[in-house]
Description:
Oligomer: single chain
CATH superfamily of the largest domain: GntR ligand-binding domain-like
CATH topology of the largest domain: Four Helix Bundle (Hemerythrin (Met), subunit A)
Largest sheet: 4 strands, antiparallel
Shape: globular
Number of helices: 13
Strand order of the largest sheet: 5-6-4-7
Amino acid sequence: MCSQIKAIAPKLYRRACDVLVADITGGVLCAGARLTETAVAERFGISRAPARQALIELERMGHVRKAEARGYDVMAPSDVATPVPAPGEESGDPKIHFLPSWELIYPDIEIEIVSRTSLASWRINEAVLARHYGVSRTVARDVVARLQQRGIVQKDDKGRWYAPALTPKHIDELYELRWVLEPLALEKAATRLPEGLLARMRIHIEAALAAIDEDGEALDALEQELHVELLGHCGNDALMRAISLPQALLVAHHFLYRWTSELFDTEPFLPEHLEIVARLEADDVAGAQAALVHHLKISRQRAMLRIQAVAQVIEPDDLSYLERLEPV
């Protein structure tokens, strides 16, 4: 029986509401501050309709009340004292911490696309994506730019955006890039690591090895710790940008770990990470590089096993902004 990945409903008003609740309970928005549809829409880069829904939801939750004039007045949190406005800051004109609009919807879009690349390649329609989420084309463009930066999408020969399928050929190409580039970054980073980083990594890996049930989020964090945080100390921005393309695999693993937890009795990469850390602790940089290459070459085979396993059990819903591309 297939499991189904449901399309994530584009509830921008809910995300805007959550941020505003945090601002109210955290004292960023003080009691008596005035919120209007226009101000909320401009802050989050959304239309007036979801802004209106956010305010209605805030009123339902008791965080705001309808003002006698236009808009809504912020209520004091019932369980905490009313924060005192900072000097020079009027309660009706609070200091606002702006959140880039694309960040509100990016996590959902990333997982929606990555979860489908184990099945096929997908073309992304920016205009439809904007309509689907009720945002501007500029916000949609920012989302796609971030997807490109993460190595998830690229342009075809006609300049159209698409997310390539995680085929054996594509996986091979990405891993070959990784075992050429990452050992070089490791060598450069080895002499620049902050004190305590290796000890922290060892503690985290050993804790994961000792755990009865391995958590997908924890495994993903361990991958990020080695392949992003540690390598990021190499001091070569151009090299890290080159590494970021094949590390689109790390984004895929974030999804795959959750669906293939029973594929292996114990997560195989943990002792491999531990070996790399041990070599670095012993100042054996060449040994750490060799261990990293070994880890990446074996990981390529495991990645294909994960992708094949997931492809057999998922059945994603259709999304208006994604068009499935048939193999050439």
